[in-house]
Amino acid sequence: MATRRGPQPASDLLGGPLVAAGAAFLALAAAAATIPVLATRPSAIALLAVILATALALARRPLWIVPLYLGFVWAYFPGWLFGGLPSPVELGGLALTAFALWRAAMAPDTGRAVLVVALFLAMPLAISSLVSGTAGGLPGGRFEDLLFLAIAALCVLGVQDVSRALTAIAITGLILGVGALFSVYVTSTSLFPLELDPSGVEAPRAAGPFGESNFFALSLATTIPLQYLLVTRRGWWQLVGIAGIVAVLGGIVAAGSRGSLLAALAGLALSAALMKPSARPSWTVRAAALAALAATALLLPTLQSQITSSTERTVSGRATENRIAMAMFLDHPVTGVGPDQYPVLYRRYSREIGNDPRPAREPHNLYLEVLAEQGLAGALGWLGALLVVGSLVARSGAHRDPVGRALLLALATFGVGSVFLHDSLLRLLYVLIGLTIAMSCALLAQRSPGQRAGRPAR
Question: What is the Cβ-side half-sphere exposure of residue 147, based on CA atoms within 13 angstroms?
């Protein structure tokens, strides 16, 4: 009789009675948390009904639990949306962190990769913070974001799960893009607000759940290779991918982010050049992508005010911010000025560099921010993490798989966008890195020991 391989369901591992006891405990905990809220805020019952319906659907398809959680993380929903209830990102993060620790013991190769990458990213932060004597101590929020790397790497259990996660993120991008266009064309909402210029000179910009148009646009742009991955699939998934490209590009224009638009177009061009469908001629997929671009072009005249505002905004402030970041690095080349200290020191430097009177600015460049705040220690840490992940990809051949290639192109798109923005979206980057580790380790685990060592299996 054939033996069963692959990850065992939790019910097989823990037994029915323990699962039932866990379900009863969760039900009691949910009741204890929600009843006081419903007593004071009856409007929260609608949200609770949606959560319950989603939970029932996931109970029938549990393989989508982690992918949908990562899609939820990607959306950056604000805390007030849950009517006083704990955020699903926070609650889910606690549960999945515990599961990730258990998985690290069951899959030591993946666990070691996550630990090494996390250390490369965390150690420069800690060293820079301690050396610079940063007020407030270690940057706890940045360390917490690293948990998303562990969740994505250890709670996603194989190539199919990675594909589901990318699908969930792509659909999230589609929904966010539609919401951005709705806020500009129809009316803004509390979930999809508009970012308004106090002077009234610039056109309103879609800000999405993020509340900030540039970062919202970068989250959209990063999904472009994932939308293209859907275009390469069969049936109605291709239509979903085309709609996703149109919604994402339109949403970026509605957000008025020039850097994110460049990143999205770069991601689309790389996807068209490097992603080849396995089940249909390449020209049909490229034709579908061109159709999506044509449909987006039809939207542009209706977003003329956002386009005009984008082209008229000056870049002198960004140039000054970049120059100041380099000056901070040259003054503190080894460990930088300390995490989160760039905005604190900005005004001191801007009195001598540039002509920007604004206080507490950000560097608007992730790479220069790392140099300014963490120095060479931070640059070496990021380089070390990149080499570890790159080595896993090369050994596993993840770059040759369509799903792996889309994932790497999403990382590249985020990298292009990071030339224009700083580190407020690192949790999204960590999700992509974690999924890359998960896929690479899953592909390596499928090989025999002989193949893993570079010899053909007998």
Answer: 18
Q: Give the integer Cα–Cα distance in Å for 48 and 94.
A: 20
- Range with the poorest average pLDDT among 13-27, 104-118, 270-284: 13-27
Pick from 81, 271, 251: nearest CA to 174: 251
Flag whether pLDDT at 2 surpasses 50. no
Give the other-Cβ count within 10 Å of 320's Cβ.
19
pLDDT reported for residue 31: 57
213: nearest Cα among 267, 260, 268, 262? 260
Q: Of 340, 339, 361, 341, whose CA–CA distance to 350 is shortest?
A: 361
Contacting residues for 128 by C-beta, under 8 A, at least 6 apart: 134, 335, 336, 338, 339, 373, 374, 375, 377, 378
Residue 387 pLDDT > 50: yes
pLDDT of 454 reads 42
What is the DSSP track for 407-440?
HHHHHHHHHHHTTT--STTHHHHHHHHHHHHHHH
Residue 377, pLDDT above cutoff 50 = yes
- pLDDT of amino acid 309: 79
Distance of CA 280 to the CA centre of its chain: 30
- Please tell me the distance from the alpha carbon of residue 190 to that of residue 185, in angstroms, as a whole number: 15
Q: Residue 195 in 3-state DSSP? A: strand
DSSP 197-213: PTTS-SPPEE-GGGT-H
| pLDDT of residue 334 exceeding 80 | yes
Give per-residue pLDDT as tens, 444-453.
Answer: 988 755 444 4
Asked if 441 contacts 392 with a C-beta cutoff of 8 angstroms, the reply is yes
Chain-centroid distance, C-alpha 147: 13
Residue 46 to residue 91: CA distance in whole angstroms = 19
Q: Which residue has the tokens 């006891």?
A: 21
Classify residue 158 by its DSSP letter: S
> What string of H, E and C letters represents the secondary structure of 342-354?
HHHHHHHHHCCCC
Sign (positive/negative) of CA torsion 178, 180, 186, 191? Answer: positive
Mean pLDDT of 3-29: 49
Sign of CA dihedral 374, 376, 378, 379: positive
Q: Which residues contact 403 (CB under 8 A, 6 or more apart)?
A: 159, 162, 163, 166, 229, 439
CA pair distance 176, 191, nearest whole angstrom: 10
Question: 3-state class of 194 per DSSP?
Answer: strand
The rounded mean pLDDT for the chain is 83
Sorted by sequence, the CB contacts under 8 Å of residue 247 that are 6+ apart come out as 173, 174, 177, 178, 180, 181
pTM for this predicted structure: 0.85
- Residue percentage of the chain with pLDDT more than 90: 48
